Amino acid sequence: MSIRDARVFKVVPNALTIGNSLCGFIAIIYTLRVYDADPGDMLNVFVVSAWMIFAAMIFDALDGLAARTFHATSMTGIQMDSLSDMVTFGVAPATLVAIMTHVLRVKLTVAQILVTYALCSIYLGCAALRLAIYNVKAITEHKNSKSFSGLPSPGAAAAICVTIFFVYSLSTRETSPVDLYRLAFILPVYAALLGALMVSNVPYLHVGKWLVSMFRNRRKQLFFALLVVLVIIFRINALAAIVTGYILSGPLSLLLPKKVRKRIFED
Fold first, then answer.
1. Is the full-model pTM beyond 0.85?
2. CATH assignment of 3-203?
3. Which range scores top for mean pLDDT: 80-84, 192-196, 247-251?
4. Which of 115, 86, 87, 92 is CA-nearest to residue 102?
């Protein structure tokens, strides 16, 4: 019996999935601490919560890799993964946006509060629907597709997080003041649009499988190395640009001929 077939390693994927959900839970709990924070530290609280959601993405990427490596793929694992994603990439970002809007726009009318909650609910509901559809396809279809139909929930959560990171980086520059009140108005709308993309038929690259295939493709290795260098040099600006580029890649790909689009997503 090989090491990767040992029973003890079968629990690794589920342990990583639990790590994913714990990061989401911590992000939600930490977001609530903003009500006890000083006005000058409020944005710091949201940044920490956003980083916890990003940390969950690492667990989310590793649990699938571990499942394949240790031959531990199961229906239970698929269900656990989606439930964890619902907490981390559904509830946590929606909570973050709703509370951030409430805190940054102190005097909200009843109508504004209802609109904010409605927009965040759209994001949350679409995340739930997307994950449910993904589970059904995983059970009924056995295709090894290299693309997604609709924006993956981690990608939607990443888009919200990098927006917060970018605004935080701008707020620390005296020469680039940021209107946080305007952000509080825009972010819920952006979240709702991300929700719509999650349940759309817009094609998106499967990042996890792209990274795995990268080890067999020198062009992809060079491209990935370039992205890493850009993040090291430009930090948050580069990270925000990469995530935003991924979000836009789906809708923009619809402008391409079908053959070209298929070559991009299936290569």
1. yes
2. 1.20.120.1760
3. 192-196
4. 115
